[in-house]
Amino acid sequence: MPLRLPDRLPAIDILKGENIFVMDETRAHNQEIRPLRIVILNLMPLKITTETDLIRLLSNTPLQMDICFMKLQSHTPKNTPVEHMMMFYKSFEELSSQKFDGMIITGAPIENMDYEAVEYWAEIQAIFNWSRTHVTSTMFLCWGAMAGLYHFYGIPKYPLPKKMFGIFQQQTLNPALPIFRGFDDTFFMPQSRHTEVRKEDILAHKELEIIAESPESGVSIVMARGGREFFITGHLEYAPDTLDREYKRDKGKRDDVDVPVNYYMNNNPAKLPIVTWRAHANLFYSNWINYYVYQETPYNIDEIK
């Protein structure tokens, strides 16, 4: 939580210059507090696993949040019990009249398909458009990020000659941004994808800012609309064993499955994974909730626009 300091205290400007968040008394007195409403559009097949991964990160903040899960009407998941979906998920139609402080749109295992060939593409487009008028800040992950960049900005995805699979070092390109408060100069991000978006396509759009990238895995985080949208090509939310389970699941079934790089101790799959991204993942999500959701959303949620 922010430090609360007297108005016009000289330390306020000094600390802000050091990227430390402080709040003067006037702002503190004018703040009203209510639970934040976060909606998650979960497109992953193993929905319970993804739910757990995201909630683990969202819970690492003292702010109270109401979490809601959204499902598609145009697609029936095959790997999650119907009872679970009925109990915990609501359709876009049920939620479309409501507003939310934050939204997370996950990836989906359909990245090799053309967007227009995806059975639920029309519904996804409607949800993307809806998020711009009903959500304060939206985070798009992996396929969700590429789909969002394509829908809003026409940015294509390209097939990779080889799956991007492992843990890759990233560099922050604008360390002064609140989303990176507390970050080191470099951080690590899991990647697991067969396609990519390219830097030159993104740079052609002045509305977009690449805020983190890797010499190995390319563009990793793109920001738009002053932080109302974040497009993340990787998976900071992954649990320590996610890539291990994916590697063991696919090994022997396909001929393009390599050992995930920079993941196992001594790059040996017989050994345990080395977790190098968890601290920054927690910090990234906490910064998003605090600076781009909590500090920006109106107290009257109906005023979101």
Automatic annotation (TrEMBL):
GO biological process: L-methionine biosynthetic process from homoserine via O-succinyl-L-homoserine and cystathionine
Catalytically driven reaction(s): L-homoserine + acetyl-CoA = O-acetyl-L-homoserine + CoA
Primary role: Transfers an acetyl group from acetyl-CoA to L-homoserine, forming acetyl-L-homoserine.
Functional pathway: Amino-acid biosynthesis; L-methionine biosynthesis via de novo pathway; O-acetyl-L-homoserine from L-homoserine: step 1/1
InterPro entries to which the protein is assigned, alphabetical: Class_I_gatase-like, HST_MetA, MetA_family
NCBIfam families: metA
Marked site: Important for substrate specificity: S192
EC number(s) reported in the record: 2.3.1.31
Binding site for substrate: K163, S192, R249
Subcellular location: Cytoplasm
Entry similarity comment: Belongs to the MetA family.
Site (Important for acyl-CoA specificity): E111
Chief localization: cytoplasm
A molecular function GO annotation: homoserine O-succinyltransferase activity
Domain of life: Bacteria
Record protein name field: Homoserine O-acetyltransferase
Active site: C142, H235, E237
PANTHER family per the UniProt record, alphabetical: HOMOSERINE O-SUCCINYLTRANSFERASE (PTHR20919)
Protein's gene: metA
GO CC term, one of those recorded: cytoplasm
Record keywords, A-Z: Acyltransferase, Amino-acid biosynthesis, Cytoplasm, Methionine biosynthesis, Transferase
Gene3D superfamilies given in the database record: 3.40.50.880
Xref: Pfam families: HTS (PF04204)
